[in-house]
Amino acid sequence: MGLGLLASRALRSSSSRVLSTNPRYNLFRTIVSTPELHKPEAAAEAAAEPDLPKRTPVAGARVHFPNPDDVIEVFVDGYPVKIPKGMTVLQACSVAGVDIPRFCYHDRLSIAGNCRMCLVEVEKSPKPVASCAMPALPGMKIKTDTPIAKKAREGVMEFLLMNHPLDCPICDQGGECDLQDQSMAFGSDRGRFTETKRSVVDKNLGPLVKTVMTRCIQCTRCVRFASEIAGVQDLGMLGRGSGEEIGTYVEKLMTSELSGNVIDICPVGALTSKPFAFKARNWELKGTESIDVTDAVGSNIRIDSRGPEVMRIVPRLNEDINEEWISDKTRFCYDGLKRQRLSDPMIRGADGRFKPVSWRDALAVVAEVIHQIKPEEIVGVAGKLSDAESMMLLKDFLNKMGSNNVWCEGNGKNTDADLRSGYLLNSSIGGLEKADCFLLVGTQPRVEAAMVNARIRKTVRATQAKVGYIGPAADFNYDHQHLGTGPETLVAIADGGHPFSSTLASAKNPAIIVGAGIFEREDKDAIFSVLQSMAAKNENLIRPDWNGLNVLLLNAAQAAALDLGLVPESDNAIESAKFVYLMGADDVNLDKLPKDAFVVYQGHHGDNGVYRANVILPSAVFSEKEGIYENTEGCSQQTVPAVPTIGDAREDWKIIRALSEVSGVRLPYDTIHGVRSRIRTVAPNLLNLDEREPAAFSVSLKPESPKKVSKLPFGVMVDNFYMTDAITRASKIMAQCSAVLTKK
Amino acid sequence: MLARLASKRLLEIRQAFRQFPQTNRSLSTALNYHIDTPDNNPKVPWEFSEANKPKVHEILSHYPSNYKQSAVIPLLDLAQQQHGGWLPVSAMDAVAKVIEVAPIRVYEVATFYSMFNRAKVGKYHLLVCGTTPCMIRGSREIEDALLKHLGVKRNEVTKDGLFSVGEMECMEDVTPKRVVEIVEALKRGEKPPRGTQNPERVNCGPAGGNTTLLGEPKPPPCRDLDAC
Ligand code: SF4
Ligand code: FES
Ligand code: FES
Fold first, then answer.
1. Measured between CB atoms, which of A240, A247, A250 is closest to B112?
2. Which cellular compartments is it found in (chain A) (predicted)?
3. For A492-549, what is each residue's pLDDT tens digit?
4. Among the three residues A117, A137, A160, which one is the final residue of a domain in this structure?
5. What ipTM score was computed for the predicted complex, to two decimals?
6. What CATH number should be reported for the domain whose range is B124-187?
7. Of the candidates A317, A207, A322, which has an alpha carbon nearest to the alpha carbon of residue A273?
8. In A249, A448, B137, B163, which residue has its Cα 20 to 30 A from A684's Cα atom?
9. Which of B42, B89, B107 lies closest to A236 in CB terms?
10. What is the rounded distance in angstroms from the CA atom of residue A729 to the CA atom of residue A298?
11. Is A213 touching B (CB cutoff 8 A)?
């Protein structure tokens, strides 16, 4: 007994109880800075104090008990928590509010248990256990904060850093690196390894993913992602011991539409973004939570910008839509936002060249021309990327001019916009997980909506759901039966004469997904009435708690356009048009347009629409404006401006509002809220942001179509996944991808 | 003072070690990734021979039909035997097809086991031990003697296709002189005796006979578990 003990008593008042009750401890007092490491057991006892402050679950982790009998109770650092049977120790800890360090464990991947970073102490277990792989057992006493656990983590960290190049200053992951963060939090301040480090050859995985393989810590998350989620069995763990490395063995690119996600799941800087390499540090970036518009899924994204430039796009968690993945198109189209942009209003002169003019002049010219045209010869087409506000205004403006020929490209002629169930993914994207039998009609979800495809794959993997496909031969990354190429196969299935009919009939939750390419077909009414007759025969297809009749849309604007009633009045409006207003529409076929027609192109990119235009009005892209988009399942979400607009460009709705004033038919909306209150009167569901508005069940109300289905086989709607709209066509990265990755 | 002396001495020792020429470390007979060569690329056709096909079925029959992939190691072994002691990438692809998995899953296994040679080896693949005890007992000299005598580098095949030298964990007990004799014997087509080449040793026993464990070992104090 002496000064030392007194001092240590004062310092560690919490453990003083142990000190005085354990006489052996007094004898073994050693003079080190962290005595707990030498007597872990004694200190562990000291850690358990009865008065516990409240803790909240990590990242809002919620538990839901499917069956009340399956509830077990475990103790995490002395806190009792109730969890369902089958949860792992790591999950139990996160429910109890303790975040366990980890590298290889990922919620959405299978458990590998190979990094050992998640070691915790469990009472009565002789050694620390890997919490991610250990199922929690009733009454287990888990200790996450004891000296044993700390020492174990420190040791694991030292081993991980042994062969790690420690090149954080030149590493793109720096600042968002799990290894960096966890070595700060749990590692030692120095290592003992003085030999030379191993070297590993970098792999070429294509134009999107950059590899620096010496940084790899062999967690195998990328291998598991590639084979489980992306469905490409290319990556593997080769070799053994310290020679172990991630690779493809034979030279191979990663040809998956989801490959960019390995950048996010790689906990270190081994897999980083090639286009973003050495462009910015992540702490310089401003994150804006927005949504993606390159397909009809509406994936939730974060736009990271520095100053006026979008530097990268990363996914945001949304369990109902994209989980935590996004497609490569969504992630890497951002360089298209700054290339080939229209920055000034322009008028085509007599010599056929465009000349920049002021907004006043450009609008005046358009206003003058539009008044000289007969109302039925005025046509407006909204593009794939249009937001609901601008489409509302375009329709209102042209209506005021006396024309009702307004539509959105991709929606086809005389599409039925009255019944929402006729153009939405009625089962909802998340709901597809409940389906046990899929019938894909004229749609290749892998290229049309990669995130929906990922859901189908997830379902097929989890439940061995059957997939039937009607359409041209296509690439699938799950087992499927190719049933035929044209509508007659669908008719055969509906009649019950096809082998797949019985599969469909015996399914509990059958899901039929029809591609939006149908809208462009002459016989679409006939096809829909075939589907209707299927629903009439099979009561499982549509019932109050399940609607298995789905349409998978192609473009971000389509659903909102139909909600707002943008359908053309006449079938061949283009052929007789004298004035065409293209609002970002680049894929309308203008071949049949009369030579003397006047074309106004309002858009953000110098894309296809510009070639025929007489006047160009520059507008903002989705990263520069606020706008509502409805995705294919009927969930409306809004984009948020992340960067300022380029040059003289303006938001679409403002341009039309100004044009209406110059034309003398002033629209009474001065703010975006004004436009939205107008939308409320037409389609109030568009204003319920982030909520899915399911369609009412009314399919059976439609009259039978007298027409017959044609023999024409279904077509391919997206022949190049990487280039589908003005933004992606302007993107260099996407051009590289389609050159290297698309199969010829 | 003492501490400084000690640390200086330590530095000297380290320096001395550094001076040793660093032999480059290779773990197996090939790299962990594939480089196309004329006789080893995915386009070279490869199939199990007619004689081996029944053996493939026999091997597959040991496993339930939904766990075909368990047959990967015996099938790789069969393929390697068929292909003269090494596995070209197309042989691995053939195995992958038989067990219905992606080729990468087979590559993973083949790269893991050092007895699967993924590059051409000689008819006689000579492996010298690289572990510490053998190094101390002169395994590097043995390797040097072999390489010099055969005129090849490590993992290279002699011109006549008979020999190649690699590294592995301990198998035999030889001397530099003896390995050359063995190589010559193999060249003549003779079969050298297996096991230790030291005439004073019997199998893995020590030279000059056993020195310990001469009698029946004493049983542990309480064999009779019921009695204690
Ligand atoms: S590359 Fe990244 S994700 Fe893949 S094993 Fe290495 S550290 Fe893990
Ligand atoms: S997270 Fe548990 S072993 Fe890697
Ligand atoms: S900063 Fe962690 S691996 Fe680069």
1. A240
2. Mitochondrion inner membrane
3. 999 988 999 999 999 999 999 999 998 888 888 899 889 988 988 888 898 888 999 9
4. A160
5. 0.83
6. 3.40.30.10
7. A207
8. A448
9. B107
10. 19
11. no
